[in-house]
User: Fold this.
Amino acid sequence: MLFLLQARDLICNRLALLLSFATITPPSDADGANRKSDSENHPQSDGVHVGPHTAEIGASNNQALTDILDLLETRISIDDEDRQKTEKNTTIKRGWMLAAAVIDRLCFIVLIIVFTVVTLVFVLLLILS
Assistant:
């Protein structure tokens, strides 16, 4: 279970990195004189270009990651329920197999006893007649 949670976190983190749409742009000069000001539509900060739709993309990425996390949690829950049902069914099956083996053995013993008695009766009737 812990492995599945760690795998889920790893997958979510990797998807978050892959779905990031912020682009890295190198600074145009060493002293940063040609950078745009913060009041413009596309400000640059530390070489990261932030577009006008970055907030919308980030929100959609967060929603996608939330949906993926929900799907993974649902899948883990379903897998746990299936495992519990399988274990329960296996236990029930083993119990019925034991009962069937006991009944089979009893029927075999009864058949041997009946066959032996009938054979003895037949031999006695044959000898007496």
